Amino acid sequence: MQRKEQLEQNQNKSISRRSITWRPPPENWLKADVDAAYRRATVEGATAVVIWDNSGRLLTGESMRIITHSSLVAEAEAEAMRRVLILATNFNLEKIIIKSDILPLVQAVKSKTYIAEVEPILRDILLLAESLSNCGFTWVPRQGNKITDGVAKCSLAGQLEENWR
Question: For bias kind Polar residues, which ranges apply (predicted)?
Protein backbone atom coordinates (compact mmCIF):
# COMPACT_ATOMS: atom_id res chain seq x y z
CA MET A 1 0.00 0.00 0.00
CA GLN A 2 2.81 2.38 0.83
CA ARG A 3 4.36 1.80 -2.60
CA LYS A 4 1.11 2.75 -4.37
CA GLU A 5 0.84 5.98 -2.36
CA GLN A 6 4.44 6.79 -3.17
CA LEU A 7 3.84 6.19 -6.89
CA GLU A 8 0.75 8.44 -6.80
CA GLN A 9 2.72 11.19 -5.05
CA ASN A 10 5.50 10.94 -7.62
CA GLN A 11 2.94 11.06 -10.45
CA ASN A 12 1.33 14.18 -8.95
CA LYS A 13 4.75 15.84 -8.64
CA SER A 14 5.47 14.97 -12.26
CA ILE A 15 2.21 16.52 -13.40
CA SER A 16 2.84 19.71 -11.41
CA ARG A 17 6.36 19.98 -12.86
CA ARG A 18 5.14 20.03 -16.43
CA SER A 19 6.01 23.35 -17.84
CA ILE A 20 3.52 25.40 -19.73
CA THR A 21 5.29 26.80 -22.76
CA TRP A 22 4.19 29.77 -24.80
CA ARG A 23 3.13 28.81 -28.26
CA PRO A 24 3.06 31.50 -30.91
CA PRO A 25 -0.09 32.12 -32.88
CA PRO A 26 -0.06 31.32 -36.60
CA GLU A 27 1.83 33.71 -38.84
CA ASN A 28 0.10 37.10 -39.22
CA TRP A 29 -2.00 36.42 -36.12
CA LEU A 30 -1.77 38.00 -32.68
CA LYS A 31 -2.27 36.49 -29.26
CA ALA A 32 -3.92 38.46 -26.48
CA ASP A 33 -3.65 37.31 -22.88
CA VAL A 34 -6.33 38.59 -20.52
CA ASP A 35 -6.45 38.30 -16.77
CA ALA A 36 -7.92 39.97 -13.73
CA ALA A 37 -7.22 40.39 -10.05
CA TYR A 38 -9.92 40.84 -7.45
CA ARG A 39 -10.07 41.99 -3.85
CA ARG A 40 -13.28 40.77 -2.15
CA ALA A 41 -13.08 43.01 0.90
CA THR A 42 -13.30 46.17 -1.20
CA VAL A 43 -15.01 44.74 -4.34
CA GLU A 44 -12.16 46.24 -6.35
CA GLY A 45 -10.66 44.55 -9.31
CA ALA A 46 -8.14 45.16 -12.02
CA THR A 47 -8.03 43.96 -15.59
CA ALA A 48 -4.97 43.30 -17.69
CA VAL A 49 -4.53 42.81 -21.41
CA VAL A 50 -1.22 41.96 -23.10
CA ILE A 51 -1.02 41.54 -26.88
CA TRP A 52 1.86 39.62 -28.51
CA ASP A 53 2.82 39.03 -32.11
CA ASN A 54 3.76 35.59 -33.43
CA SER A 55 7.45 36.09 -32.60
CA GLY A 56 6.67 36.74 -28.92
CA ARG A 57 7.17 40.50 -29.11
CA LEU A 58 4.97 42.63 -26.87
CA LEU A 59 2.88 44.92 -29.07
CA THR A 60 0.64 46.65 -26.57
CA GLY A 61 -1.30 46.17 -23.41
CA GLU A 62 -3.27 47.93 -20.77
CA SER A 63 -4.48 47.56 -17.25
CA MET A 64 -7.42 49.18 -15.59
CA ARG A 65 -8.81 49.24 -12.06
CA ILE A 66 -12.52 48.53 -11.77
CA ILE A 67 -15.25 48.21 -9.17
CA THR A 68 -16.98 44.86 -9.57
CA HIS A 69 -20.63 44.23 -8.91
CA SER A 70 -20.26 40.51 -8.40
CA SER A 71 -18.11 38.38 -6.15
CA LEU A 72 -17.12 36.36 -9.21
CA VAL A 73 -13.66 36.90 -10.59
CA ALA A 74 -15.31 36.07 -13.93
CA GLU A 75 -16.77 39.59 -14.01
CA ALA A 76 -13.35 41.20 -13.93
CA GLU A 77 -11.98 38.64 -16.40
CA ALA A 78 -14.92 39.24 -18.75
CA GLU A 79 -14.21 42.97 -18.54
CA ALA A 80 -10.60 42.26 -19.56
CA MET A 81 -11.88 40.23 -22.51
CA ARG A 82 -14.15 43.11 -23.53
CA ARG A 83 -11.19 45.53 -23.26
CA VAL A 84 -9.02 43.46 -25.62
CA LEU A 85 -11.83 43.36 -28.16
CA ILE A 86 -12.19 47.14 -27.93
CA LEU A 87 -8.43 47.49 -28.47
CA ALA A 88 -8.56 45.10 -31.42
CA THR A 89 -11.42 47.09 -32.95
CA ASN A 90 -9.74 50.46 -32.38
CA PHE A 91 -6.40 49.29 -33.82
CA ASN A 92 -7.95 47.24 -36.65
CA LEU A 93 -6.39 44.03 -35.40
CA GLU A 94 -8.18 41.45 -37.51
CA LYS A 95 -6.55 38.14 -36.64
CA ILE A 96 -6.43 37.66 -32.89
CA ILE A 97 -6.58 34.74 -30.46
CA ILE A 98 -7.73 35.70 -26.97
CA LYS A 99 -6.54 33.55 -24.06
CA SER A 100 -8.13 33.40 -20.61
CA ASP A 101 -7.58 31.13 -17.62
CA ILE A 102 -11.29 31.15 -16.65
CA LEU A 103 -12.66 28.08 -18.42
CA PRO A 104 -16.40 28.77 -17.84
CA LEU A 105 -15.97 32.22 -19.39
CA VAL A 106 -14.21 30.84 -22.47
CA GLN A 107 -16.87 28.13 -22.79
CA ALA A 108 -19.67 30.70 -22.53
CA VAL A 109 -18.13 32.88 -25.25
CA LYS A 110 -17.44 29.97 -27.58
CA SER A 111 -20.93 28.51 -27.15
CA LYS A 112 -22.58 31.96 -27.21
CA THR A 113 -24.30 31.34 -23.90
CA TYR A 114 -24.44 33.53 -20.82
CA ILE A 115 -23.33 33.51 -17.22
CA ALA A 116 -26.07 35.43 -15.41
CA GLU A 117 -23.78 37.68 -13.34
CA VAL A 118 -21.85 38.86 -16.40
CA GLU A 119 -24.52 38.67 -19.11
CA PRO A 120 -24.28 42.34 -20.21
CA ILE A 121 -20.50 42.07 -20.59
CA LEU A 122 -20.83 38.77 -22.47
CA ARG A 123 -23.33 40.36 -24.85
CA ASP A 124 -20.77 43.10 -25.59
CA ILE A 125 -18.03 40.50 -26.07
CA LEU A 126 -20.10 38.58 -28.60
CA LEU A 127 -21.03 41.73 -30.53
CA LEU A 128 -17.44 42.97 -30.61
CA ALA A 129 -16.12 39.54 -31.65
CA GLU A 130 -18.61 39.41 -34.53
CA SER A 131 -17.28 42.73 -35.83
CA LEU A 132 -13.78 41.25 -36.26
CA SER A 133 -13.12 39.08 -39.29
CA ASN A 134 -10.96 36.53 -37.45
CA CYS A 135 -11.19 36.24 -33.70
CA GLY A 136 -10.83 33.16 -31.53
CA PHE A 137 -10.97 32.33 -27.84
CA THR A 138 -9.00 29.73 -25.98
CA TRP A 139 -8.42 28.58 -22.43
CA VAL A 140 -4.95 28.47 -20.91
CA PRO A 141 -3.99 27.05 -17.49
CA ARG A 142 -3.24 29.68 -14.86
CA GLN A 143 0.49 28.88 -15.08
CA GLY A 144 0.44 29.88 -18.74
CA ASN A 145 -0.81 33.38 -17.96
CA LYS A 146 1.75 34.54 -15.38
CA ILE A 147 2.80 37.79 -17.04
CA THR A 148 -0.72 39.07 -17.48
CA ASP A 149 -1.60 37.91 -13.96
CA GLY A 150 1.33 39.95 -12.65
CA VAL A 151 0.15 43.01 -14.57
CA ALA A 152 -3.35 42.69 -13.08
CA LYS A 153 -2.00 42.26 -9.54
CA CYS A 154 0.34 45.25 -9.90
CA SER A 155 -2.53 47.35 -11.19
CA LEU A 156 -4.79 46.32 -8.31
CA ALA A 157 -2.04 47.20 -5.82
CA GLY A 158 -1.62 50.63 -7.43
CA GLN A 159 1.92 49.79 -8.58
CA LEU A 160 1.21 50.28 -12.27
CA GLU A 161 -0.28 53.26 -14.01
CA GLU A 162 -3.50 52.58 -15.79
CA ASN A 163 -3.44 52.48 -19.56
CA TRP A 164 0.31 51.96 -19.76
CA ARG A 165 0.15 51.10 -23.45
Answer: 8-19
CATH hierarchy code of domain 30-156: 3.30.420.10
Tens digits of per-residue pLDDT, 100-127? 999 999 999 999 998 888 999 999 999 9
Q: What's the rounded Cα separation, in Å, for the pair 134 and 57?
A: 20
**CA 50/CA 33 separation, integer angstroms:** 5
pTM, rounded to two decimals? 0.83
Residue type, 39: R
Domain ranges of the chain: 30-156
